[in-house]
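Retro notes
What went well: the complex prediction finally ran end to end.
Inputs used:
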Amino acid sequence: MTKEKIKELEKKANDIRQSIVEMLMEAKSGHTAGPLGMADIFTLFYFHILKHNPKDPFWEERDRLVLSNGHICPVLYATMAHAGYFPVEELKTLRKLGTRLQGHPHREYLPFVENSSGPLGAGLSQAVGMALADRMDKKDGDRFIYCFMSDGEHDEGNTWEAIMLAGKNKLRNLIAIVDRNNIQIDGYTEHIMPLEPLAEKWRAFNWQVIEVGGHDLKAVNEAVEKAQKILDKPTVIIAHTIPGKGVKEFEGDYKWHGKAPNKEEGEMALKELKEIGAKLIAVSK
Amino acid sequence: MLNPILKLNPKIFNSDVEQVPIRKGFGQGLLLAGEADKNVVALCADLTESTQMNLFAEKFKERFIEVGVAEQNLVTVSSGMAAMGKIPFCSSYAMFSPGRNWEQIRTTISYNDRPVKIVGSHAGISVGADGGTHQALEDIALMRVLPNMDVISPCDAIEAKKATMALAKTDRPAYLRLAREKTPVITTEETPFKIDKAQIYWMPDIGLAQVGIIVTGSLTYRAILAAKELEAEGIKTKVMNLSVISPIDAETIMALAKECKAIVTVEEHQIRGGMGSAVAEVLAQNYPIPMEFIGIQNLFGQSGTPDELIEHYKMGVKDIKEAVKKVLKRKI
């Protein structure tokens, strides 16, 4: 990935962050910290890694991206809109009656998403099922099944059931990305339910584990390339992110997990993001 | 008399009537469905033989997934396979699936509209000696309340086989409820089975029926025995096999209700929320008439032989007959 590409993606991620703040302000409810924290990774996937076609969303050969922690869907919707799946203007309908952009993704309303989600701990196992189906059909060399998941949902037993099954079946076409932002609704993960040593736990279940900084696009991209090359194991990329990334007042504070910015907070956030965006443009020129 | 059009088992009233566990029919049906369509896959949570999935697993090793004792994973992995075009049948005991993993079924299968076929074996009190923890008496209620979920509770092994094959051809999520114990074979290969059509198995020789008995699952045999004895006592009944509880065949239920003006429902399940409640929902809104309910009366089960338990919890032939006589007196 060239430096120019990285700059282009960082600019795109900044646009997406602005969209996230705008849609949450308009919706007056929803999750802020997770979507802002994952904006870089979503951008990297939808604008660089994923084999997909927004003009032909049901293209059979596309990679599959399962979002497990559906509550961060503002970043999914914003990224999909910017990628061309639907008009960016539609983002303002988030959480309103009749919208395709439900508070948590529902495939019946927005068929471009691979799965309905919200209740935690069930995404990885759906991705495992997809990877198993592709292996049965000998398509596991052709495309990858990605699962984006949260650190908090490691509290769910279902998550570990899925991790165990994927390890047993050596699903090399399955790549999980854990948003390791250290927060959940009630507080910091290590206070609520300690997860560390998280990498060692995954490794013990026969996964390849790669830890990266989640805002370092080059590093995340290299981790995915490494994951794609391994032949006998599924891979988890533990991406260390900053919840609320891009808006200093939101960063690292668990209180922003589940609330939307009010008008004042939102305008402050947008101003900050626009300043960052302007610098990104200046650098790329 | 047995409905002559349906070609039911002519030996049904013989003492040596053939008895086969309903779950066995599922095992045979799954094998046939697997032979007919390579997209049929099977998943099991460490109960392959007792849910009769072993026939499929042995023949189609590469299309069988063992997930271990993990029912939440069982249904969610199935959802993922369905997303890639597979037709997954996933089995466990009804107490654990849908008993333990209901929310995963709701979100990833029903709400997510993935055509997974959830197979719950060992349903009902007739599980017997294993006791109350293993007797699923709430599963019909759990599954019929879900939008976008067919619910089928076959009356015998042959119907279970046909239901399994039919489910492999639908693109809807479904729950198939199976009993563990041997049950007399009521139907034959020629008996019609349709997901959208309930059938009248027993009818008066001549004239109209005075009471309609609507039954689902393994108690169908007892309901027919009760109807036969009642006929000898001069009470005319019709017995409807409502094996498909959802989508409910309101038309056939209404026709029976209008003829009899009194209904008894019979099921090996809690009365609250079960098949009888589903029938009551149809009748209360369209044609309110007296009803009696045979089923578990807001209790948990216990250890015992299947026959002992059926009698103890008042679901035997005698109890069905009493309910018919009671509802007859209540007729307006």
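What we learned: The longest helix of chain B spans residues 22-36.
What to try next: split runs per interface for comparison.
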